[in-house]
Design goal:
Layout (H helix, E strand, L loop, with lengths): L11 H14 L23 E7 L3 E7 L1 H7 L8 H4 L2 H17 L3 E6 L9 E9 L8 E9 L7 E6 L2 E4 L9
Antiparallel strand pairs: 1-2, 1-5, 3-4, 3-6, 4-5, 6-7
Length: about 180
């Protein structure tokens, strides 16, 4: 993918997941969940993966929550809804990302301070990729999230469209 800044400087694990997703979708707008096998991504990426069900409403439920993400978050919310386990501005920010992804049906890349339940500050890079069982409606999200302590990252959220990054202007609660 010949992307412009900012995604080109993203963590190599995010690039590996994007390339995997792109390969699985082929000429489709997005692959289906049955085309995705998290184990194919290998042991260095699996701990950073999440699978999120998109339910009517929309409402978002963690189906898979990788061990590295659980460790950073301070618990494993597998099986729980995002609007229940996340709080405040971080919850609003995440829900905005998921809603943009299902509306636009395009990957979303974001960097921000991580809304951890622990006292430590850390930065995160996240890549969210749409999945669809019917080739049209997004019914699941494949996400990869990596963490950086003391990172010089700046807050950024963009939609990945073709070979460029598009700003996401409709987030009600961007993180500073």
């Amino acid at each position: 993918m010949a992307e412009e800044i900012p995604f080109k400087d993203a963590d190599e694990r995010l690039h590996a997941v994007f390339d995997y997703w792109s390969g699985k979708r082929g000429s489709q707008p997005m692959p289906s969940r049955r085309q995705i096998d998290p184990l194919e991504l290998g042991p260095t990426i699996l701990p950073h993966l999440m699978l999120v069900d998109v339910e009517p409403g929309p409402r978002f439920r963690y189906r898979l929550f990788g061990t590295a993400v659980s460790e950073a978050f301070g618990m494993d919310p597998t099986g729980q809804y995002i609007d229940v386990v996340m709080v405040g501005q971080y919850k609003d920010f995440l829900l905005g990302l998921y809603c943009d992804l299902i509306a636009m049906k395009k990957p979303v890349y974001s960097t921000s301070i991580y809304g951890t339940k622990r006292d430590q500050k850390m930065w995160t890079q996240r890549l969210m990729l749409p999945l669809s069982s019917d080739g049209n409606a997004v019914d699941m999200v494949l996400a990869c999230q990596v963490f950086l302590h003391g990172s010089p990252l700046k807050t950024l959220t963009v939609r990945l469209a073709q070979d460029k990054a598009e700003p996401i202007d409709n987030l009600s609660q961007p993180l500073d």
